[in-house]
Amino acid sequence: MASVASTKAFGLPKPGQLAGPLLLSLLALLCWALPSLYDTLVWSRNGLEQGEWWRLWTGHLLHSNTAHLLMNLGGLWLIFALHQPHYRWRSIASVSLCIMAMVSLGIWWWVPETARYVGLSALLHGLFAWGAMMDIQRGWRSGYLLLIGVFAKVAWENYFGGSAEVAALIDAQVAVESHALGAVSGVLCALACRAYQRVR
To answer: Whole-prediction pTM value?
Structure first.
């Protein structure tokens, strides 16, 4: 996995920092603009059973409606603004691909009632947790607060259920289990990055 170390703090984003979130945004918008691909790309238990493994990644790029898409894209860029110093296109690409795969496999194994899944939200929870871990590794105490906050959020929604208002807005059930899987995956990716840096 690529190095995520950064020697610079916040400032005007460089192309290499923008590349990751920009590519994710463009792919999500492209999927939204081509609804004919929905059934081919959606995370589908039946599809995965038939060996269509690309769905482990492509399902995260699809959304239930425009509100769902815009909410997630807004969240993506807010997280980028929060953790900009850690973003490099190679690191964020590898971390994103790993989080997507881990979340998808987690849904497959531990949420058997889920037949279909779409949305960037699990990845966003993973990137948020990964960024918080990167903050901690740089000695920024705010990282601890962010990490506690994201796990408190997923614990709350997994115990009490997802927001009915959000579910109505996105016209879909909020996949709270995927949010927890995303946060855990983000932490695991951060630990893997740290281990890679030590042995490199």
So the answer is: 0.93
Following DSSP, what letter does each residue of 115-126 receive, concatenated? -EE--SHHHHHH
Phi and psi of 11, rounded to 5°? 175, -165
The answer to whether residues 137 and 190 touch, using CB atoms and an 8 Å cutoff, is yes
Report how far residue 177's alpha carbon sits from residue 112's, in angstroms, rounded to the nearest whole number.
11
φ, ψ of residue 117 to 5 degrees: the values are: -145, 140
Sequence-separated (6 or more) residues with CB below 8 Å from residue 96 = 20, 24, 123, 127
Scan for tokens 């058997």, then name that residue.
Answer: 112
Handedness of CA 90, 133, 114, 51 (dihedral sign): positive
pLDDT in tens, 92-131: 999 999 999 999 999 999 999 999 999 999 999 999 999 9
- pLDDT mean by block of 10 residues, the chain; 200 residues: 48 89 98 97 98 98 98 98 92 96 98 97 98 95 97 97 95 96 98 87
Among residues 128, 121, 123, the alpha carbon closest in space to that of 143 is found at 128
Q: Which two tokens stand for residue 65?
A: 């409606």
Candidates 134, 105, 140, 135; CA nearest to 122 is 105
Lookup result for tokens 């909410």: 71
